[in-house]
Design brief:
Layout (H helix, E strand, L loop, with lengths): L2 H21 L2 H5 L11 H7 L4 H17 L2 H13 L6 H14 L5 H18 L11 H23 L2 H6 L2 H43 L1 H48 L1 H6 L3 H18 L3
Length: 294
């Protein structure tokens, strides 16, 4: 096997395992749950950002392209080692080098080929740095904050139109807590997960493609490992989601009670129940912590 194949398989396999473990863990997958009442689906996120779908598509597409371009770095390193060891480089890359040499009227030597490959690696890894921040973060920042503003207005309109009977049956502090948590998740958590998961998906597809071209047996082995990691993540997802729902209920109850204490602080002090309220809140906080030990 050529040196470039060994290096390429090692690098892309490392990238594959690293990103697969990071982005297919139950913690990441379970974070797409806006409240403990109903499980969210990926289509909920699409609906939430539907008004800004054009800029969101542009941002995610740009990040996906950068992720795929990253795959050239380990490939280029393999080609550099291939040149240094006296082996021929792949024909597509050789065509690129020949075209560049023809344009600038330079002979194709080993030094020239090394310079072209090193230049391409630098261009795709360092030269893109001034461009990437203007393309990638649009979905995580601009789109997310605009969507938060619109949905916060809709939530306020809904709150103001609810009948008084609704507030008699539901704690106002709990309602405020749910609204604040939902807006926070959709502003920070979900755009970050979605804006990272989709580009990484294209990266993994690109890795499969590169490895398949280099050695189909290694690609088959990684494909099996992919489904193995996915199955393990799904097995732990249900238990993790159950614990998260329980923790959400406890946190919501604690925050609601804290809001009531602040609202009725004059009554609490008038009846000298500070110690009793502190003890009850401490028990609620301890109950939240015990969920992690289940």
């Amino acid at each position: 096997m050529k040196i470039d194949r060994v290096v390429c398989v090692f690098h892309v396999a490392y990238y594959f395992i690293f990103h697969l473990v990071i982005f297919m863990t139950p913690a990441q997958m379970s974070s797409v749950s806006p409240n403990p009442v109903r499980k969210a689906h990926f289509l909920d996120l699409i609906y939430y950002f539907q008004k800004y779908r054009t800029i969101a598509f542009f941002s995610i597409l740009g990040m996906s392209i950068f992720e795929v371009l990253d795959l050239f770095v380990p490939y280029g390193i393999g080609q550099l080692l291939n040149l240094l060891s006296g082996h021929p480089i792949d024909s597509p890359l050789q065509t690129v080098i020949s075209t560049i040499a023809k344009v600038i009227n330079q002979p194709i030597t080993q030094v020239f080929s090394l310079s072209v490959i090193a230049g391409l690696i630098g261009l795709l890894s360092i030269g893109r740095a001034p461009i990437q921040p203007w393309i990638g973060p649009w979905f995580q920042w601009d789109v997310a904050l605009r969507a938060r503003r619109d949905h916060a207005q809709k939530a306020l309109e809904q709150i103001l139109t609810l009948p008084l009977e609704y507030y008699d049956e539901n704690n106002p502090g709990r309602i405020a807590s749910r609204v604040a948590k939902g807006l926070s998740n959709h502003t920070w958590s979900y755009p970050e997960v979605t804006g990272s998961l989709l580009p990484k998906f294209f990266r993994v597809v690109g890795i499969f493609g590169v490895i398949g071209l280099i050695d189909w047996r290694v690609a088959l082995l990684l494909l099996v490992s992919f489904f193995g990691i996915l199955a393990n993540s799904l097995l732990g997802l249900k238990a993790l989601a159950t614990r998260e729902e329980k923790l959400d209920r406890y946190v919501e109850n604690t925050e609601s009670r804290t809001s009531e204490i602040i609202t009725n602080i004059k009554t609490v002090k008038a009846f000298a129940t500070e110690a009793a309220e502190l003890k009850r809140q401490t028990n609620r906080l301890d109950r939240e912590l015990k969920v992690l030990d289940l």
